[in-house]
């Protein structure tokens, strides 16, 4: 059989990933045109492309700097001789930490244990136990190539036929529907409640379960993203308890995507509580797999591909199968594992690196908090726009009212109305966002997601405001 797209796995043709879809491709074309300059850039009414489509804190053009502590550890792991060649460049606690990891790992160019370096898994378990007030076992922890790899692993185990389904929040991070499409599984949508700041609605979950039963779909797991992506929502403790009880009652595996747990804008009033803590506090038997990542928070080390998952109430034979599948990939990236060690074991008060680490992390939190507040306020002041002032994560998800003429213009071009809005925004301003239709939304509603990472927030939001005003005049 000749190699053609039609000869490949048909499930893969239905995979969609809006975060890096049509808008991102066109944004890259604009970026290349600006780099070439001259006739290539003629007609572009902006001098740079702003990639607000993806939570990529250290991307060129954004201004979240890498944490010095993480990069110093990484440097000494890459080249241990630096500790002697540049002795004044590294604090004593950094050198001691790197030496400990070197003795455990050896060269980072070598494979590690397939489940992750044992010492680093112990440190992850210590972090979880301190966070939640409940013990954690390193044997329940798998280090992964970012949280996405862990999610894909679990979904691949749970989907056994096309009638197996996973409850997914709408709007959702498209990793879940894309992975399910590749596995020929069934997404079971449940809608978040925008009127309640995108809270998870337990009645909506029950309604989704009933619909799945009517459709002949067997629910296997429930995905919860907390803090939310794309919404930035933060679950209440009461809702979390109800979710755990629902999972236990319906034999669902709870998949807790908690990668934004450190991205809190009002931590005194809206703190993060893990599902591990809720499950243990309730003494629940519900199976839980929790995911965390080096890519978000104040680290923002997306390219290192560091993450971990923890299993709670997961049978030993299931964990054995997880280990076997993880072994096929040999091991997660070792530098990513080192990054995870820095994530869960940052400098402590009194250590030489602590003062700089504290200053850097507080600056990152402060900048993100102020941008989120300012952007939400400016967007809410626009006619036809409403935006929840997100208490967590890196994004806002404003709702936009679009006129009949805009909707008809989108239909004529074969686009979703919010995709038309996003494409025209890109062409007019160089700002790349993701239309809400790429995440899922209620019929007849339109949104877009943008990050709160971009520098020069006044100029950035000013361009969004002017575009919205111009678009509203163009499509009255």
TrEMBL record:
Transmembrane segments: none annotated. It comes from the Eukaryota. One of its GO terms (biological process) is L-alanine catabolic process. Its cofactor is pyridoxal 5'-phosphate. One of its GO terms (molecular function) is transaminase activity. Residues 91-454 form the Aminotransferase class I/classII large domain. Keywords: Aminotransferase, Pyridoxal phosphate, Transferase. It holds the Pfam family Aminotran_1_2. The keyword Metal-binding does not apply. Homodimer. Belongs to the class-I pyridoxal-phosphate-dependent aminotransferase family. Alanine aminotransferase subfamily. This is Transaminase. The lineage of its organism: Eukaryota, Fungi, Dikarya, Basidiomycota, Agaricomycotina.
């Amino acid at each position: 059989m000749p190699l053609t797209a039609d000869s490949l796995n048909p499930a893969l043709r239905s995979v969609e990933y809006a975060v890096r879809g049509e808008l991102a491709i066109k944004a890259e074309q604009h970026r290349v045109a600006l780099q070439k300059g001259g006739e290539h850039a003629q007609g572009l009414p902006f001098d740079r492309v702003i990639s607000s489509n993806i939570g990529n804190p250290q991307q060129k053009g954004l201004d979240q700097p890498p944490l010095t502590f993480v990069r110093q550890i990484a440097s000494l792991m890459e080249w241990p001789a630096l500790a002697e060649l540049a002795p004044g460049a590294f604090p004593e606690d950094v050198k001691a930490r790197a030496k400990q990891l070197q003795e455990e790992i050896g060269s980072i160019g070598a494979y590690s244990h397939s489940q992750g370096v044992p010492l680093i898994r112990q440190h992850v378990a210590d972090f979880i136990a301190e966070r939640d007030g409940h013990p954690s076992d390193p044997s329940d922890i798998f280090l992964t190539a970012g949280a996405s790899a862990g999610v894909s692993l679990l979904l691949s185990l749970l989907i056994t036929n096309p009638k197996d389904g996973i409850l997914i929040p709408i709007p959702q991070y498209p990793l879940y529907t894309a992975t399910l499409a590749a596995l020929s599984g069934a997404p079971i949508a449940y809608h978040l409640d925008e009127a309640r700041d995108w809270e998870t609605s337990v009645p909506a979950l029950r309604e989704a379960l009933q619909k799945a039963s009517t459709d002949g779909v067997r629910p296997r797991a429930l995905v919860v993203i907390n803090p939310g992506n794309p919404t930035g929502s933060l679950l209440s403790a009461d809702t979390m308890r109800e979710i755990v009880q629902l999972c236990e009652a319906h034999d669902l595996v709870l998949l807790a995507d908690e990668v934004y747990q450190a991205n809190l804008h009002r931590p005194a009033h809206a703190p993060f509580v893990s599902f591990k803590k809720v499950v243990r506090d309730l003494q629940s038997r519900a199976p839980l797999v929790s995911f965390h990542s080096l890519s978000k928070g104040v680290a923002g080390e997306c390219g290192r591909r560091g993450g971990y998952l923890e299993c709670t109430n997961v049978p030993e034979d299931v964990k054995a199968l997880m280990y076997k599948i993880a072994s096929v990939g040999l091991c997660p990236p070792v530098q990513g594992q080192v990054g995870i060690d820095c994530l869960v074991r940052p400098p402590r008060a009194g250590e030489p690196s602590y003062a700089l680490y504290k200053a850097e992390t507080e600056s990152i939190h402060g900048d993100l908090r102020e941008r989120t507040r300012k952007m939400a306020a400016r967007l809410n002041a626009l006619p036809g726009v409403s935006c929840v002032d997100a208490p967590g994560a890196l994004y806002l998800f404003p709702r936009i009212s679009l006129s009949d003429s805009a909707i008809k213009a989108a239909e004529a071009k074969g686009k979703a109305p919010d995709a038309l809005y996003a494409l025209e925004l890109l062409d007019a301003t160089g700002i790349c966002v993701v239309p809400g239709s790429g995440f899922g939304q209620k019929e007849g509603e339109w949104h877009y997601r943008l990050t709160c990472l971009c520098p020069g927030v006044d100029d950035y939001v000013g361009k969004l405001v002017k575009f919205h005003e111009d678009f509203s005049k163009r499509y009255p």
